[in-house]
Design goal:
By secondary structure, the chain is α+β, with helices and mostly antiparallel strands. The protein is 33% helix and 21% strand. The protein has seven helices and six strands; from the N terminus they run E-H-E-E-E-H-E-H-H-H-H-H-E. The termini are far apart. Belongs to the HPPK family.
Length: 191
């Protein structure tokens, strides 16, 4: 299905393992080019940042970035393409929040809420101990962890500072600035 209008879409990229595509930073650059060619769009991209692995101590530091583009593809089609790209880059889903060559998260598709406010809030409020064990079996939009993650909000603020979370009704800047300063300071420009 295609939307009649092009919709602002944000995707987070992360890598903390090398592959035939190179270092995590090089993987992010290659992945952005692949997304642009696959989705037929031009992406506005944040700088690439180095961030501690989440959860802390679970592996090497990450290279993280966020891209912004407009598309008339529906969210499920975008997610399907992102999963195909992850696989092409050597992503194997064996451990939740484990080391990975490429992680692509669909953060938002305009102000779309999927499947509904109640389900989004359920996943947003899930305790961290449960988050490490279970994942939703359907697409949740906006991504339920945006507001908690400096490694998403810092680069996101570079490409979509005024995007407003349709459930929390806060901008990216508001959510970023609500995080502890120590977490924000851990997100540094990649060398």
């Amino acid at each position: 299905m295609y939307y009649s209008m092009r919709t602002l879409t944000l995707v987070a990229l992360g890598s903390n393992a090398t592959s035939s595509f190179g270092t995590p930073k090089e993987i992010i650059d290659h992945a952005i080019a692949t997304i642009e060619s696959r989705l037929g769009t031009t992406c506005e991209k944040s700088p690439i940042y180095r961030t501690p692995c989440f959860p802390k101590g679970a592996g090497p530091d990450y290279a993280n970035a966020v891209i912004r583009f407009e598309t008339n593809l529906e969210p499920s089609k975008i997610l399907h393409q992102l999963h195909e790209i992850e696989t092409e880059f050597g992503r194997v889903r064996t451990k939740r929040w484990g080391e990975r060559t490429l992680d692509l998260d669909l953060l938002c598709h305009g102000d779309t809420i999927l499947p509904d406010d109640t389900e989004v809030l359920h996943w947003m409020n899930l305790p961290i101990s449960e988050q490490t064990q279970i994942a939703p079996n359907q697409l949740i939009l906006p991504h339920p962890r945006i507001q908690d993650r400096a490694f998403v909000l810092v680069p996101m603020a570079m490409v979509a500072p005024n995007w407003r979370h349709p459930v929390l009704h806060k901008t990216v800047i508001d959510m970023r600035d609500a995080l502890p300063q120590t977490e924000i300071e851990e997100v540094v420009l990649y060398d």
